[in-house]
Design brief:
Largest sheet: 2 strands, antiparallel
Strand content: under 5%
Shape: globular
Organism: Candidatus Roizmanbacteria bacterium RIFCSPLOWO2_01_FULL_35_13
Number of domains: 1
Number of strands: 4
Distance between the termini: 51 Å
Protein name: Glycosyltransferase RgtA/B/C/D-like domain-containing protein
Number of helices: 22
Helix content: 55-70%
Structural class: mainly alpha
Membrane topology: Multi-pass membrane protein
Pfam families: PMT_2
Keywords: Cell membrane, Glycosyltransferase, Membrane, Transferase, Transmembrane, Transmembrane helix
Length: 473
């Protein structure tokens, strides 16, 4: 029966991610157009738009992004030509893979916990994968060429194979391969993965001592060898870190200095030792990082407002409102429930490490840089659903001769249907109307209009008012 539900979930995930993928969102944005342009250039010439041979880092708009996603696009360009759909297809495929990976990761995490038949690892895994399949946060990034979502999928399988590697060493090699590839996909992984794997080494230290040393050594060697090209690229070209420096919380020190110089001078004048410590420039930096980290747990951002326009559906948060009470219940359940200590530590490690890369950048909270939060929100919510179900099932009270539990179940189902339907409408119908400008709608269409008639004119003039639009041409 669980296999039947699993394939239904995968079917739903495929439908939601592939239906109208070339038309919703309404247009490829600058980053998507750049990835498609570079992929086509590499496919036809072996060089990117700047003439660099088989680059592992794309200069793009001087943001120097990891280049693996562009290479993933190439097979689809060969099959379907260069268009919006082909640029987005790798993300959609990896989006479905993330749901499959979540199912098996959750089963692996909970299989050693002492659970009742109702709370079986399979049930938790099915619920978590279902919630990820319909998640606004995951769905919207699975339908656009944003590299972070591919990194998330690789990370889920990397964690799964790490845990499986404790019993069969060959999985360590697979884990390291996927983790290293993730670094070739998205910038934040350079911060996230080292911290995550250090945490996993601590959590599973006793198991690692008993694991195959040959396979562990082999995995380390493979990781080092695979890292050489990107390390070489970073060292050989100082501009490769330009983007990281540009989005750093400390990139513009003017605000920090303005704020601190006056306060610190006043503290010195008053011989206020505590003030001199608190208002120290370095302490101010630390406060900014902590504030950035905490901002990602803001309920209003998660459930109501969401991120910038390209990162959420109109009038929707990143998570469903119906998930909020269940999420809190699930966190309580995992903390105090009868689950394996290593399972608890692993899930909370992923959950707490996910915001770290974004916390040291500007523009926080940030849904893309913290996409590694997933699927922990869905795991918590799954545990909350099971706990709520069995609690409500035990209620004996009646309201107007109707058992209260039936009223509660009916109310929840109706709220779920409304919440889910509202999101589908906001994303697939309203988004193109409200957010078309944010998706640079019009540039691709303008180029398509001009292309058939360009030979009729001696010159075509294009404004340089927005200098990031060259990839559409």
């Amino acid at each position: 029966m669980s296999k039947y539900f699993f394939w239904i979930i995968i079917g739903v995930a495929i439908l939601l991610r592939f239906w109208q993928i070339g038309n919703v969102p309404p247009s490829p944005d600058w980053d998507e157009a750049s990835l498609g342009h570079n992929a086509y250039s590499i496919m036809t010439t072996g060089r990117d738009e700047y003439g660099k041979f088989l680059p592992v880092i794309l200069r793009s708009f001087d943001d120097y992004k990891p280049g693996l996603y562009a290479y993933l696009i190439i097979p689809f360009i060969k099959l379907f030509d260069l268009n919006t759909m082909t640029v987005r297809l790798p993300s959609a495929i990896f989006g479905v893979l993330a749901i499959i990976g979540t199912y098996f990761l959750v089963k692996e995490l909970f299989k050693k916990s002492h659970l009742s038949p109702q709370d079986s690892a399979s049930n938790i895994a099915l619920l978590a994968s279902l919630l990820l399949a319909i998640s606004p946060w995951h769905l919207q990034f699975s339908r656009i060429a944003f590299e972070a979502q591919v990194g998330l999928s690789l990370n889920i399988f990397s964690i799964l194979f790490f845990i499986k590697g404790l019993k069969r060493g060959i999985y360590f090699v697979l884990s390291v391969i996927l983790a290293t590839l993730s670094i070739y996909v998205y910038q934040s992984e350079k911060v996230y993965l080292p911290i995550l794997f250090l945490s996993l080494l601590i959590i599973y230290w006793k198991d690692l001592i008993k694991a195959s040393r040959e396979w562990i050594a082999g995995a380390v060697l493979v990781g080092v060898l695979l890292s050489i090209p990107i390390v070489y690229g970073l060292v050989n070209d100082p501009n490769s870190l330009l983007r990281a420096r540009g989005v750093s919380s400390f990139a513009d020190q003017t605000q920090f200095l303005k704020r601190n110089v006056v306060k610190y001078a006043d503290d010195v004048e008053r011989s206020d030792i505590i003030g001199m410590v608190v208002d120290n420039r370095r302490v101010e930096y630390a406060k900014a990082v902590v504030a950035g980290y905490i901002s990602h747990f803001n309920f209003n951002w998660l459930f109501i407002t969401g991120d910038i326009e390209r990162h959420h559906a109109p009038n929707m948060g990143l998570l469903y409102l119906f998930e909020l009470p269940l999420l809190l219940m699930g966190i309580y359940q995992l903390t105090f429930g009868n689950f394996s200590k290593k399972t608890k530590l692993t899930i909370f490690a992923i959950f707490l490490i996910a915001p770290i890369p974004a916390s040291i950048t500007s523009g926080v909270p940030h849904a893309v840089r913290t996409i590694n939060f997933l699927p922990t929100f869905q795991i918590f919510t799954s545990l909350g659903i099971l706990a709520a179900f069995y609690f409500v099932s035990s209620i004996k009270y009646q309201v107007l001769s109707i058992k209260a539990k039936y009223l509660i179940f009916t109310t929840f189902i109706l709220f779920f249907i409304f919440n889910f339907s509202y999101f589908l409408n906001q994303y697939f119908v309203q988004q193109n109307y409200y957010y078309s400008e944010s998706w640079q709608y019009g540039w691709k269409q303008a180029v398509e209009y001009v292309r058939p008639i360009k030979d009729k004119y001696n010159k075509i003039v294009v404004t340089n008012d927005r200098p990031l639009d060259q990839s559409y041409m």
